[in-house]
Write a structure and sequence with these properties.
Helix content is 47%, strand content 10%. The protein is α/β, with parallel strands linked by helices.
Amino acid sequence: MSVRGRCAKVLPSELNKVCPERGDDPATHPRKMSDFEVVPNLQQSSSSVSKSRRKAHFPTGSNEKENLISWIPENIRKKECTYFVESSQTSDSGRIVCECGYLREQHLDDGAKPPIFLGKEWDPSRHIQEMPTDAFGDIRFTGLGQKTGKYVRVSSDTPPRVIYHLMTQHWGLDAPNLLISVTGGAKNFIMKPRLKNIFRQGLVKVAQTTGAWIITGGSHAGVMKQVGEAVRDFILSCSHKEGEIVTIGIATWGTVYNRESLVCPMGGFPAEYVLDEENQGSLSCLDSNHSHFILVDDGTHGRYGVEIPLRTKLEKFISEQTKVKGGVAIKIPIVCVVLEGGPGTLDTIYNAITNGTPCVIVEGSGRVADVIAQVANLPVSKITIALIQQKLSVLFHDTYELFTEGKLVEWTKKIQDIVRSRQLLTIFREGKYGQQDVDVAILQALFKASRNQDHFGRENWDHQLKLAVAWNRVDIARSEIFTDDHDWKPTDLHPVMAAALISNKPEFVKLFLEQGVRLKDFVTWDTLVYLYDNLAPSCLFHSKLQKVLLEEREHTAGSKMPRLQLHHVSQVLRELLGCSTQPLYPKPKHTERPRLSIPVPHIKLNVQGSSLRSLYKRSAGRVTFTMDPVRDLLIWAVVQNRKELAEIIWAQSQDCMAAALACSKILKELAKEEEDTDTTDDMLALAEQFEHKAIGVFTDCYRKDEERAQKLLTRVSEAWGKTTCLQLALEAKNMNFVSHGGVQAFLTKVWWGKLCVDNGLWRVITCMLFFPLLYTNLIIFREKRLQPMGCLTRLRAFFTAPVVIFLMNILSYFTFLLLFAYVLMVDFQPTPSWREYLIYFWLFSLVCEETRQLLYDPDGLGLVKMASLYFKDFWNKLDICAILVFIAGLTCRLIPSTLYPGRIILSLAFIIFCLRLMHIFTVSKTLGPKIIIVKRMMKDVFFFLFLLAVWVVSFGVAKQAILIHNEERVEWLFRGVVYHSYLTIFGQIPSYIDGVNFNIDQCSPNGTDPYKPKCPETNADNKKPIFPEWLTVILLCLYLLFTNILLLNLLIAMFNYTFQQVQEHTDQIWKFQRHDLIEEYHGRPPAPPPLILLNHLQLLVRRGLLRRPATHHKLKEKLEKNEEAALLSWEMFLKENYLQHQQCQEKQNTEQMIRDIAQRVDVLAELLDLDRVKRTGVVEQRLGSLEDQVHQSAQALRWMMQALRGNGFSSGEDLPAVGSSRALDFKEADLEGKAEERRPPYHVLARNLLYPGSHTLRFPVPDEKVPWEVDFPLYDPPAYSADHKDMAVQDPFSLSLESLLKINYNTMDGLIDRQSFHGLYAVRDGLPLNPMGRTGLRGRGRLHCFGPNHALHPVVTRWRRNLDGSIIRKSLKKTLEVLVAQYPLSDVWALPGGSLEPGETLPLKLKWILRREFWPQFQNLLKQGTEVHKGYLDDPRNTDNAWVETVAVSVHFDNQNDVEMKRLNSFLQGCDPELCIRWQVLDKRIPLHANHKELLHKVSTLLGAYY
């Protein structure tokens, strides 16, 4: 027997073994749970557990552990038996135990003393007290690896909100999207292997895909063990991230074996638990595969089922919570999954159905599950006591003798009520079509329950869709929601579209787009702000936005963070896209835009308190739509690195090539700043994918039409900041795109200007030198208007071609360099010659051209932006450097005293000007790539010099210190340390480094000769050096070894690697960099320096004097709107072709084909596995068809025999039995009940087991035992009569015969009308009998009078109309609106009527909603109305002796201008503010009382309206 863990009785040594971290347990006074109802620390502790840590449940951090240790004892209690009362039963070992089940020594010290209440009965309310719990923390299962979970011991009276707070705030669990309560057999049972696998796979799949919590009994037996093993198998087959499934076990503390190891007042972190099934006896072990345990304690030992009430309350509490995720607020749905089970399981199912919880029964698991599954499809009238008895005898053959007659009646009644709620009952059958997986059955059960739930309008469909989005089950949404049963308007999907975007559920986004959501209507200004408000905090773009907002707050000196606006987003995007783009979202003139918030009931979608649905419920004039909604959504997805979303949205884009290139640019820029390596790799991979998409679309365009494709390159895209595709590709360094043949052909076309690209270079040079040759056929032009020989524009077209400008600039530059070299070497006089002045003039023209390039700003970017763009170019930096050095040399040259230094500086400038020649060679396909390799190798040399400097300096300093004493001359120190050491690498070894070649004449002994180094240390006669030659030689050898052999070879290897790496992409790099040269000469003035000054003078006159705008020489083209629209449509058409081609290629891909084949094989194997079940089903169908035929034949024969007998052809013998009665009974029992069940012949609501407003339970009355004429010897209903203290008139509270004899039945009894609409009713023992039969309860219940309680229910209706006044129809029938009310303290809506007070003509509830002055007119309306019902009303308050009878009158307003209706509406507006009243569309799903809905059905039938 288990030893109960008590902190007061465990010795210190034993305590340390159990819980090494536990200290002394402070004295605690027993307190009741009521003292802790407030739970003061709930809010204080929530800050200690950040949401960022919630994914990592284990192990518990030190701060979290301390917080848990302080919070749990204050808020969570346990129960202890404080007095020992000897029980008649003994323990398993034969020892005396208390009534609580514990031994005497397991009680507290006070409880073990001689009891004060000796001889009295044991009372849990007095003998059990609450005190702080002593068992909580982490539980580790010994010998089972690292399986660790959380556990806590709680009192059975613990409020559910405290437990929920513990799980979400301290255990770090995210609120679930679904709650799966698994119930069933608590003992091990046998399931078919296939059914077991299907159940396990389906359960964990639905939990993993929807983010559900699974709640079980937590023990290592029965259905709990099945669930644990399912979770275990899933975790073993998945990665750690995928394998997180929350499995919560709620068990009874008093039935847990080895629970003493969990007792730890200061918390067990961890507590070691041994799973020992062999010695557990009647107790049970905890299941090691559950992640969390709630151990419910009621102070007893060995009593099962203690946890059921708390589990039910907790599940109900969780299901009432609202979870907001992705902007969508949903109430957490709950579903009950049943396997096998006994009487307790039946009660669980019944309570779940009663509370509106859908249940999934797994057929084939055994016992209760199979009983319900086998009768679920039968009409309720066919479910009889005999049938249930038959099923129990088969399925409960071991324990069938324990079922008494009363139990059979109770089971029959409960099963009838369960089956009656078919919308909440789902039977999972192996092999049933559409239900091959348990996960589908579970989700279908929830949707079926939701569809059949009463609702107003379209709330029900919204709720289903929100559930599907929260679960991320697009397959369920396709099969269960987007069906023909409901027509979805695109605008109805906007809120869930936003939720799917925020939650990163691309499949749902794709589904909504397929269902007709137009992004143009969806993406408004406010929606976009809402989406950016909900960026993931871990997103880099989010941090950049916060930085911008913080800078704005500091700039405005405000204390409050400014609200996010789109111009903030635009500011960050411009940093990412580059300065060449214009802002995508202009800054509004006013700081705050006017906003309209319209809250919509039942849909909670929101940030900062405003409803998201209100973003779309606006007038057309108030909604601000964006320029390009697809672009806006694409950017939002890309900045968060959401690949699937970005690809889906990009497929919707029109300007797709520019969009792909812009996304590539954004991702590459974000990747530079991203710290996480994996995220960086993902961003770069996605950027490369977008580049490939742009290349694919451009390739298709170029193949179709080269000219139009090239227009796409230079078209100014308004949506992307007035930039071009080519500019975006260059900004993003998309070398693959720029090196595309079509792009290069365009650049070549630009390079040759108006000349044909077929002209040879020698022809161009010849015509450039002898321009009259232009008027021959030597040069061919592309434009036909330039073909005539005498055309004067040929000359201009030739000399404005970029290739000609380039060649003339080369000629000019070479002339400049030759003249410069001549002046430096031959003609450099004290007074400058005319040649030198020509050089200065030439340089001045170069300076003017560089100034023009710096100030040239056709896009209006500003001087600062242009300067930053200018200095980004390496060749511009080199130009500025050469010019500055030249100016410095010129300044020195003009001063006579610094003439020679000036010549030296000018010589250096000449070197820089010569290096500038390399830029000219980049146009060459041969030399260009080599220059790129040289530039890369220069970087390698730069880093190599750092390594080399370490060896040079270290060897130089050591050599200088060893050889020479106190050299004070800095120049000679530099020579000895750096210069000589550097030259040593190349073989110039100093002669004095060893004593062999030392010569005293080559040095200065005292260091006084400025032209000689100081001599090394020598002996006294100054002949031989005294330094250690062996050391210097060793150092020299090591130095040469590492520098000459190691480092130089390393440099060669680096060069080789760089060459190999660049050589592979040299062609791409050259083609990419070729653009810069082409664009430069495309916008450069045609005249070469120094004649370019004429062009500069012309430009100055045009801009300065004539004020003419700058001419756009960049490769941009602004198209007309019609032309641009046609071009984009053509591009979009080819994009669709490209996507289709990509899909075909993926299907033809070998790997994809292998995956498809594998999937088909799996499907085939599944079909083969189901073949046996299907064949059985086919046989059953054939047998059923045969039985139908036999049954029909038997009926025909019976009719024939009866006809013959009626005509006198009968024999003396009895008629033979035609057809087996057993077969007929079997057929009736096996009918599937596909047709909708007719209205039940007996009252149903009046037989609900729990009487409303009380704790009284009715006696169970099955359908067959309802009539009083049917004998029911077991019938012994309880009595209940409520005392209405606020009512003046009510029948006696007691059922004494004396008080009952004063009542006159079947007549007017004073003011009380005791006459029934159904005629005379029977009276037995002074009590009237319900004319509709037994109800399971005696007395008058909550009704006021015995016998009939009369009521009046007016049904006020009008036609539902459009704005133009026309009547709305549905299914060709007119639709009605009915007046309904919601009274205080009621959660449901009802018809405006109720019980009639004695002597009154209008119900009190009707008077509440009407002003007094309108009562007479309403009575007139009732007189003019049509009576639709008069008689018994099936009401939950009815009893055997009191019931409700009502008169329902239809008051219909056929004309919308009816004066009486307008008066009624005016009086309704002035009714009691605590009441809610509304006109509601009438259909079968309207959420009213069930008996009121029957009245509405009669009214709709009367008026021929839709129901």
